[in-house]
Amino acid sequence: MTIQRYGTPTKPGALPFSKAAGADGWLFVSGQVPRDADGEIVTGSITVQATVALTNLKNVLASAGYGLEDVVRVNVFLDDPRDFAGFNKVYARFFSADHAPARVCVQAAMMSDLRVEVDCIAYKSRDGEAG
User: Fold this and answer.
1) Hey, where are the domains in the chain?
2) What angle do CA 28, 8, 72 make, to 5 degrees?
């Protein structure tokens, strides 16, 4: 078994970790937060932050050759559980009912101005068909 790693953050203090690591068709995506291309936190409402975090998740998946339809499980961490409804509206734009992964959503004390963090596990069979 070979482990592949995708993306290394460049922001000081964030190392050492990979944005994703995969083996035997499985891809484990590290927690994605609402950071812009320069690594700065995007502040704002839960809908703004969720959109950025989920877009970042989608981009990490794509960089490894996966799509949202390959996601098996999503873990969601919210700073304030009252943000769930707003988060869920954004989440529904990324994951359709036809490709709804299993999901966990918990309250977690966030660092700095983060309201949300999202990670996932995806699978793609070796012949390229979704699992």
Assistant:
1) 4-123
2) 15
